[in-house]
Design goal:
The chain has nine helices and seven strands, in the order αααβββαβαβαββααα. It has 270 residues and is an alpha+beta fold. The longest helix is centred in the last third of the chain and has 24 residues.
Length: 270
């Protein structure tokens, strides 16, 4: 029989071990044990399909979500096209982009976009990376992607541009991929406290505190890019002022459930 001292030590060990045991369970087991994880993973799968349907990603591109039970880990699909992602494709990674649970399946090479932003931005729980064509010219030309209407107010005073050349070894061309932790940190540093960052000659990354919100931001940033490009051809563009952007963002992001319902119904149809 345990005396009080031994019982106290046992309870302390058990309280420390419980989270570790929970973290050691693979994704499928976590879904069985935790409604929060199950909801997050299922929403992550749905988001992959929505992003493809809305042309925010194509055969390439990916979205992650922080583990709701462990802020130091995140879920991301294995290396497959977003349109075909299923629950069985979801892997879990630590904040250095290392696959957990001994999972040896091929992972996205640019998972470090996700680990870098999630590691450095505790206010962000979900990250998207894609290559939508309307976005690309802004990263190439230095023209600032700024909010031209209320739906893209989160762009604030303009999306920063990540220039990978600034973080590469001197006189060595990169393959343009954010393929390690150093580049993930550099991308996150360029993003700063904003929610959208352009990647010169590559694409974009977006972040938010939820899957629904980051999907909303990605889709409407791409729409903003198309509208802005057309407006720039016609003359002087009237962008949202910083005050208008702040007020508009607060109002419009209260309603993101509406487009999410529309997008969800589109991809759920047989």
């Amino acid at each position: 029989m345990m005396n009080n001292r031994h019982l106290f030590k046992f309870l302390c060990f058990a309280s420390l071990a419980a989270p570790l045991l929970a973290q050691s369970a693979n994704v499928q087991e976590q879904m069985t044990e935790s409604p929060a994880v199950k909801a997050a993973v299922e929403e992550l799968v749905l988001a992959n399909h929505i992003l493809y349907d809305q042309n925010a990603v194509d055969g390439y591109g990916h979205i992650s979500i922080r583990n709701p039970n462990n802020p130091n880990a995140f879920f991301l699909a294995r290396s497959v096209a977003p349109s075909v992602v299923t629950v069985a494709d979801i892997m879990e990674f630590d904040m250095n982009g290392k696959a957990l649970h001994g999972d040896t399946r091929t992972a996205y090479g640019e998972r470090f976009i996700h680990s870098g932003i999630l590691r450095n931005r505790p206010d962000i729980n979900s990250v998207i990376h894609g290559h939508a064509a309307p976005i690309l010219p802004y990263g190439m030309t230095g023209s600032t992607l700024k909010p031209v209407y209320h739906m893209s107010a989160f762009l604030g005073e303009g999306a920063p541009i990540f220039e990978i050349r600034n973080f590469a070894k001197p006189n060595i061309d990169t393959d343009m991929f954010v393929s390690n932790n150093d580049l993930g940190d550099a991308l996150s540093k360029t993003m700063g406290l904003q929610y959208f960052v352009l990647m010169r000659g590559h694409g974009y990354a977006a972040g938010a505190d939820s899957i629904k919100k980051v999907v909303f931001r990605s889709i409407y940033a791409i729409q903003n890019a198309s509208i802005q490009s057309e407006a720039m051809k016609m003359g002087n563009v009237q962008y949202l002022t910083p005050g208008e952007a702040t007020a508009s963002q607060e109002t419009i992001e209260k309603t993101i459930g509406r487009p999410w319902q529309l997008w969800s119904e589109r991809v759920k149809k047989p």
